[in-house]
Each structure stands twice: as C-alpha cells, then as structure tokens.
C-alpha cells in the first residue's frame, strides 16, 4: 500500500477534497473499489462532480517517484456553519493580506473571486443548473472587468502619449519663442539704426538747406550791391555827357 505524501493545502477559500493518486511512474492507478453496476445516486454524484470539475478545474501535484496526485473540489453539501466559516475566513484573509477596503486592490479582488467560486461550488451541489447559471454570470462579470481594465490601460497609454507629445511641443514652442525673440531683438536694433540714420540725414539736409539759403542770400546781396554800383556809375556817365 502506497503511503499518502504530505500534499500542500491549497491557499484558497474554495473547499477541496482529499488528493487522489492518479499515476505512479507514468502508469495509471486502478481503482479496486470501483464497481461495474453503479447506483443511480452514485451516477448523480458523479455527474455533479463532473460539473464541479468543469467549473473549478482540479489541482495537480507531482510528488516523489513520479507520483501524480489530483485534488478536486469537495462535493460535500455545505451547511449554514460552512457559510459562516467562509465569511470568517474571508474577513480573516482580507485582514492578514492587508487588502485595501476601497479603490483598486488585486488582493481583495482575488479573495472575493475565491469566495464567489466557493459559493458557486456550494450551490452547484444542491442545484447544478443554478450553479452553471452563476458561472455564466461570473464569467460575464470577469469579461466586463477585463474590458474596463483594457480601456483603462488604453486611456493611460493614450494620456501618456498625449503628455509626451505636449511636452515635445512645449519644448519646440519654447525653442521657437527664443528664436522669434532673438529675431525681434535683431529687428529692433535694425529699426533703431535706421531711425538714427534718418535723423542724421534729416539733420544733414537741414544744415545743407540752411547753408544753401545763406549762400543764396549772400549772392543776391552781392548782385544787388553790384547792380547799384553799376547803376550809379552809369548815371554819372550819363550826367557828364549831358553837360557837354
């Protein structure tokens, strides 16, 4: 008779049955207790166990000497005490693993998922159809949560891309602003130089005009004086000629 090894207890809120040896050194183990003609109750229990195994897959353990052990979920009906114990274990594990009470918490999500699986197991034993319907509800909730998680991750990635683009555009705009400020300073200096040239030109033109006007006045005065002298000389000559 093979001694049963120490199978590690599953760290889960789901209740499991005792582990069963499936094969040794790659050879399957025959169940000598299995009878050819099974009773209707045994057939019903087997059907319920098949449903439970499809909902909650068995755990497999490979021990020494290539022994393969399988541990299925328990098919024993749950009592009111089992439900109260499940509630106590849930609160205890939430406190031990320091799960957050609000917000996104993977630990709290995992423990509540185990608790829901245990409730599905208990309900499936009493009514398989009700358990299968709860599995549909559970899977739909998980798909919805995954969709929200994908949407959240996509929005985070989109926000990060937009933030990086905004930072890049900010740097580009700052560089462009510095470039435009430099051009504005250069143009301002050029305007100042042009204004200075205009002022110098206006001053030179004013001085040149004043000099020209002065020279014109002097020329006119000289010509008037010369004309006066010529006129007096002409009058003298005319007067002398008349006396003769």
What's the arrangement of secondary structure elements?
Blueprint: E1 20-24, E2 27-28, H1 40-55, E3 59-63, E4 67-71, H2 80-96, H3 106-126, H4 128-243
Antiparallel strand pairs: 1-2, 1-4, 3-4
How would you describe this protein?
The relative contact order is 0.07. Mean pLDDT is 85; it is low at 32-38. The chain has 244 residues and is α+β, with helices and mostly antiparallel strands. It is built from four helices and four strands, in the order E-E-H-E-E-H-H-H. It has a four-stranded antiparallel sheet with strand order 2-1-4-3, with no helix packed on it.
Summarize the structure.
The chain has 244 residues and is an alpha+beta fold. The chain has helices spanning 40-55, 80-96, 106-126, 128-243, and strands at residues 20-24, 27-28, 59-63, 67-71.
Low-confidence stretches: 32-38
What topology, given as strand order, has the largest sheet? 2-1-4-3
Radius of gyration: 55 Å
Question: How much helix is in the residues?
Answer: 55-70%
Distance between the ends: 186 Å
Secondary-structure element order, as H and E?
A: EEHEEHHH
Q: Characterize the overall form.
A: rod-shaped
Q: Number of helical segments?
A: 4
Mean pLDDT: 85
Characterize the biggest β-sheet: 4 strands, antiparallel
Strand runs, count: 4
